[in-house]
Amino acid sequence: MLKPLPWKLFLSFTATILLALSAMPTRGGVPQDSTAAPAPAATAAKNQVKSTPESQAKAKSLYQIDCAMCHGDNGNGKTDVAKSMGLTLKDWTDAKSLSDKSDQDLFNTIRKGTDKMPPEAEGRAKDDMVWNLIIYLRSFAK
Ligand code: HEC
What we know:
Elements: H1 7-23, H2 40-43, H3 53-66, H4 68-71, H5 80-85, H6 103-112, H7 127-138
Helix pairs in contact: 3-7
The structure holds heme C.
The site of heme C (HEC) has 18 residues, from helix 4 and helix 6.
């Protein structure tokens, strides 16, 4: 027959855990390991995503739904929407148009949007997909 767990046992168990937790080193207290991997923010500056034909096909269809109305099917920015909204869009078929921007710059613009461009939300495109979009839109210049 099972006896109910004695309270004393339970309490001392809890105390042990609390003690163990408080004994754990805090972030500020220990010097950071200098060999540790760099923070994600630093590595994200470069496009880490390896695109595949499948991921590029997905990027292309997302681009056509969410972006092409302004930026154009081929990325040249000459669209009716751009004209009617008075938008100044770069011609991405010219490699020079994006040469001064890092992939991280493009990522930030796509995620945050601008006052003229709606942001692409996380729920709509995961980070991987945004990186794929960037590979896709840089490919317009090829
Ligand atoms: C409503 C029109 C509109 C839509 C939709 C739109 N953009 Fe833009 N986008 C702009 C404008 C306008 C700019 C130029 C910056 C500005 O004027 O704010 C821009 C700038 C950018 C830039 C910065 C580089 C550059 O050419 O200036 C990137 C990258 C970009 N858009 C990607 C996208 C992607 C990817 C999508 C779809 C997920 C998208 N845009 C959807 C209007 C749009």
